[in-house]
Design goal:
Bound molecules: iron/sulfur cluster
Strand content: 15-25%
Largest sheet: 2 strands, antiparallel
Structural class: alpha+beta
Oligomer: single chain
Radius of gyration: 15 Å
Helix content: 25-40%
Strand order of the largest sheet: 1-2
Number of domains: 2
Mean pLDDT: 86
Low-confidence stretches: none
Length: 140
């Protein structure tokens, strides 16, 4: 069901599909330095919420944990809510908009449960700039 407040705003893609947390299962989200600092400032230790960088080519990547919902992001509660929603990584804020490296352009991730809905939305230049900045920060 499409929730009326699932929307695309100037900086992020707000997903409010009731009960969906598919993108928080077996996440491979990579974090920027700003993401790391912001989350550590909440009192979390990066060595606990991230994988060892030796396993991830030097990138800080969210760790998954076993929970009653499956192999889920460290920050997903058993009720399927992000416990750091206001401070979640930039990649989570912009998802399901992702960057297709093969075709060098932003696309909607086909793995998103509601990819058809998001594909019909209009993405503004500012969101695309946000995504491109994020990619260039991560892979510089
Ligand atoms: S940080 Fe939050 S939004 Fe991002 S994958 Fe984890 S639970 Fe999901
Ligand atoms: S998989 Fe798609 S619809 Fe589901 S929570 Fe993530 S962004 Fe929203």
């Amino acid at each position: 069901m499409v929730k009326p407040n699932s929307e695309v705003n100037s900086k992020s893609v707000k997903c409010d599909f009731m009960g969906c947390y598919k993108c928080c299962i077996e996440t491979e989200m990579i974090l920027t330095d700003d993401d790391l600092n912001r989350i550590e400032n909440l009192g979390y230790d990066k060595n606990e919420f991230c994988l060892d960088t030796k396993e991830t080519d030097g990138y800080w990547q969210l760790r998954n944990k076993k929970s009653i919902l499956g192999n889920t992001c460290y920050f997903l509660s058993n009720q399927g809510k992000c416990t750091i929603y206001e401070n979640r990584p930039q990649g989570c804020q912009i998802y399901p908009l992702i960057y297709d490296f093969e075709f060098e352009k932003p696309i909607i991730d086909v793995d998103c449960r509601e990819a058809v809905y998001f594909n019909k939305q209009k993405y503004s230049q500012s969101q695309i700039i946000t995504l491109e900045k994020l990619i260039s920060n991560l892979f510089r």
